[in-house]
Description:
By secondary structure, the chain is an all-alpha fold. It has a domain at 1-37. It is 26% helix and 0% strand. InterPro entries: DUF4913 (IPR032584). Pfam families: DUF4913 (PF16259).
Amino acid sequence: MRVHDGPTAMAAWLTRYADPIMSVVLDAEAGPFRGCKSDRGHKTLRPHKDGVLPCEPAPAGLFDRMVDDSADDGLVPLQHESLDKFVED
């Protein structure tokens, strides 16, 4: 859609692009939001009992590395020494 397409450009975009896409996205039987309800969200489609994706905690010390530009380990040096410093900066 371009300015020089004239006043009907928006209508053409709606009929050629938006309508076909929205009919797929909002399809109540097969669309990605088929389980979404205004009163309960996606609760019935969650495969985990508490609705939270399970994950393992990060290994101890993984995020403790301090900035050390002299290390030739191929890693990008940390820009902040801690999360607190990041938030402060």
